[in-house]
Model the fold of this input.
Amino acid sequence: METNIKDAIETMMNEHRLIEQVLGALDTFVEQLFTSVPEDRRQVAQFAHFFRSFADYCHHGKEEKELFTQMNKSGFPMEYGPLAVMMSEHTEGRSHVGALAAIGQGSGPLTYAEKESVAEHARAFIPLLRAHIQKEDNILYPMARQGLGAAALTQLNEQCVRFDNEIMGQEMIHNLKTLASELTVNFPPDPAKMAAPAGCAGCRGH
Ligand SMILES: [Fe+2]
Done:
């Protein structure tokens, strides 16, 4: 039925806002990492779980399986151009999250070398995903709204709702949003670092 159909692009933009908050929390966590963070390994595992399960599986999952597929059917190539760039950035992000997850699976407090590795991957991943989100919000999503016809947009909306309900499950989404809240409470993002990156100052003003 139509009553539960949401605007998929709006949903994905809302997910961006949540992901940005957790990126800010990760940034704060890394700032504190070399002083003292209780249960530091568990925190790394929690961040990895959020970015793998929510940012990648849930959010990038909808983009790759639904949005990009619809855009491709409407004539946007997958092999080059914006979709190819977005896909390659998703892949790059996965390698950083995979490294964090591997460290999170170890035991005992983090060693100094592991802290260095966490900091290195996080400091590469944070700006990568922030810039990626800006490109999607300001370029790719508007391109999709313009380039997809009404029927394709409706189909996208229906498929994204189905993805969340049937592939992710609302309980899992709820749990991951709760985890995001815990991480941002425990490691409050620095508002000064949450502003739009340089070069994109006017993007949000439209
Ligand atoms: Fe995205």
Summary: Confidence is low (pLDDT under 50) at residues 198-206. Residues 12, 16, 59, 63, 133, 136 surround fe (ii) ion (CB under 6 Å).
